[in-house]
Amino acid sequence: MDALSRAEPRRARGRLGAQSAEARAPAVPWARFSAWLECVCVVTFDLELGQALELVYPSDFRLTDKEKSSICYLSFPDSHSGCLGDTQFSFRIRQCGGQRSPWPADDRHYDSGAPVSLQREAAHYLGYVYFRQVKDSSVKRGYFQKSLVLVSRLPFVRLFQALLSLIAPEYFDKLAPCLEAVCSEIDQWPAPVPGRTLNLPVVGVVLQVHIPSRADKPESTSLKQRGHENLLPAPLVLSSVHELDLFRCFQPVLAHVQTLWELMLLGEPLLVLAPSPTVSSEMVLALTRCLQPLKFCCDYRPYFTIHDSEFKEFATRTQAPPNVVLGVTNPFLIKTLQHWPHILRIGEPKMSGGLPKQVKLKKPSRLKTLDTKPGLYTTYTAHLHRDKALLTRLLRGLRRGRPADTLTTLLRGHLLELTQSFVIPLEHYMAGLMPLQKSVAPWKTPPQIRPFHQDDFLRSLECTGPQLTCVLKGDWLGLYRRFFKSPHFDGWYRQRRREMAHKLEALHLEAICEADIETWMKDKSEVEVVDLVLKLREKLVRAQSHQLPVKEETLQRARLHIETAIGSLPKDLQAVLCPP
User: Fold this and answer.
1) Which of 93, 160, 305, 369 shows the greatest Cβ crowding within 10 Å of its Cβ?
2) Which domain holds residue 55?
3) pLDDT higher for 18 or 258?
4) Domain named UDENN: which ranges (predicted)?
């Protein structure tokens, strides 16, 4: 399918750019490039093959045949979309064959500091597409059709769309040499360190971005221009690397945004049928982002076609639909997937009283096939009452010509308040399961984290429930009961329990380091001292590999404890524990 990938065996990634491996800063070829992107693909239309993978950069990057096929089909809008000109959208595919190489330390460092909702994809590739279709009499079909695709594990949709808008038009005019230069420029970028503001030069432009951190406040989403006084040209400042214009994405479904929020919270299967891959991918991404800061733990496909290798898995009627949000543009898929419990069909944008025409809530029994009208087809009844005041404020703002950023901030604030009001009681209850710090003794096994009892939690809501922070009324108890059965509760609970276990390990290590080791060793046998040395070494390894929340001075004390303990042992044991 792609001559370049077939023709060359795997070798050092030195093909692009004129620099030698010795002249590059990182020891591993293309290490800086790989911190941002997995590869760059060019997909073209071949009269005999259909969509074909023309180029892959770096040329030695390994994609399986199944991954190549998925990238090819998902990089072109299907025939029902009728996209002329330039179109941008995104997709997500499952990585085949498992993780093919160990993740570098920089990747783990990024994940430890990034918000959980923005961590790298572990088992999927994200594809960001710039597709061009224009009339061209020199081509047999009469059209020039080509896509430039950035493949990454980072969910930085705004950054990669901005990057594509800069490099794709250049590439379509100048082809391969331009792409080689761009890849070499990206290979000079600094690593994406959470909390840092970075200047990223490419094709004569400097993109200035802030990499989100767990320490950021949820509402602090904008980036003001900074640190560019000596930069020529002045940087192009991106206010966010990942956030979408939620108001624009949700305009046709504003009346049902809370119902959709509940469906996302509960991990319900949802089929989104949109008029184009752009609308499809933006709606799916907006839906998955409306739970922030909660991590979206279900599968999602911003753009999906019947050619995808997983189509049969999603279309089977022998079992319940999987927990996935599926974005499609082919209306034939409504017939194939009409057994799905929730289907959202979005029509072409039509204004009605200053607001795009709102889709209606409809029963699935009214679902037809090709002539299905726009609507949210579901039997689901929302647990919470609709916030009519929010819709009124958004509509009033739109009629008065308020900036889109202002309306997006209002909508995002509402969704953030909803999610936080729901999650805070869970966090409060979970914190109460943590053993008290005073119960962590240096020379005893640390106490266990108590189990999460759902009934106890539900009883606690009377005093600590979401009614304390959210004005919305409704069946919050019923919503929590359904949430306990969802992948999002499992994902949230596993993450929080892992963090608490790491905190408990850190507290135990601190307790040992603050204790008087010489007094402890006075009445201890050599076996017990050796056992302490081995356990302290194991704790140091875990503290570094799991990045436990311990200070450097605590680690230094642990090393001193190890030296003191070894120094108290006979020479033969010292030689065993500290071989030359």
Assistant:
1) 160
2) 31-190
3) 258
4) 38-494
